Amino acid sequence: MTTIYNFNAGPAILPAPVLERAQHELRDYHGRGMSILEMSHRSKEYEAINNEAEQRIKRLLGAGDDYHVLFLQGGASLQFAMLPLNVLPPGASADYLVTGAWAEKAYEEAAAIGRARIAATTADGGYRRMPAPAEITLDPDAAYVHLTSNETIQGTQWQAWPDAGDRPLVADMSSDIMSRPIEIQRFALIYAGAQKNLGPAGVTVVVIHDLFLKSASSSAPTMLRYATHVKNRSLYNTPPVFAVYMLNLVLEWIEAQGGLPAMAERNTRKATTLYQAIDAAGGFYRGHAMPESRSFMNVTFRLPTEALEQQFIAEAAAHGMVGLAGHRSVGGVRASIYNAMGQEGCDALAGFMAEFVRRHG
Ligand SMILES: *Cc1c(COP(=O)(O)O)cnc(C)c1O
Questions:
Q1: What do you get for the CA distance between the two ends of the chain, in Å?
Q2: Stretch 103-116: mean pLDDT, rounded?
Q3: CATH class of the region 259-360
Q4: Is 28 one of the catalytic residues?
Q5: How far, in Å, CA of 35 to CA of 138, rounded?
Q6: How far is CA 45 from the centre of its chain?
Q7: What does the pLDDT look like over 34-75, one tens digit per residue?
Q8: 9 CA to middle of ligand 1, Å?
Q9: Which of 73, 130, 175 to mutate to test the pocket of ligand 1 (most atoms within 8 A of CB)?
Q10: Which CATH class for the 17-256 domain?
Q11: Could you state, in order of their start, the residue ranges of all structural domains in the chain?
Q12: How many CA atoms lie less than 13 Å away from 172 in the CB half-sphere?
């Protein structure tokens, strides 16, 4: 096999040992003579996976028994709607911190379902940063405050959480969950589609505090109520068994690497390697994010012309570095460097960036 460095934004790179383990176990899961894809979700094998994955998420996040872990479907995009359907009662209003393409979508969905307010926006200048505390005006009665911890498309990330006071804080953590330790106690609910940093597409992780759950409405359709899935431990209907199985293997891999402090240390070093390559190029590369809001997961930058960007992406691919095209709304280059990307991939890309400037700068 040739070495490929996979910088895709999502679905994204998975740890090689996890893929090998899944391959090894696929045909004959734990001596049962069949694969996990072919077993009942009520089997003791799948129940063990479901429970392990739940316990691992709690351990890694430091979440106590006052939190519930759910494995749902519909992606983070369904959470944009499921959240207000559960915790935005008629007459109430929710506050949204609108910091990029994903936060915009979350806000628009809430505004279609109930009353949503923009408590801060950094749209001016093209979402290059997260808002400063003084730019955030919260509604004292907000049902909750919603933020997007990492804007996957723009390449910005909250480096310090805003103060929501005693309002419940909710975060879409799809593209940086498990990349660094978080103070889970600050959050009433977090959610994440798995396909960036946790596993394959098909499962969405929701972690919800018990008090927030108790405040939820019971008028949403059964499948769209958090309470349904808490009560049934994510087994109300057939779960995406293979996606949860893969998720559990990825979580086991994260624990074996040293957990979230180890992930944060590696991710900081990887991102620093790439940002230094941007900053050392004398203006040839222009980072999209302002330095204080730079993402440690998605590194976005432009080159002097679109033609050079196309050439950069094509030549990088020829060197085995794939998935570098920026999202069409931002353009340029985006290197997604989730947990499973090693330092070697970032070193290779930084080396290529320096060499590209020598030829074209
Ligand atoms: C990818 C992404 C989403 C959408 O996730 P789906 O699982 O495709 O619905 C939402 N928010 C963020 C921050 C993302 O990166």
A1: 34
A2: 98
A3: alpha beta
A4: no
A5: 50
A6: 28
A7: 999 999 999 999 999 999 999 999 999 999 999 999 999 999
A8: 10
A9: 175
A10: alpha beta
A11: 17-256, 259-360
A12: 30
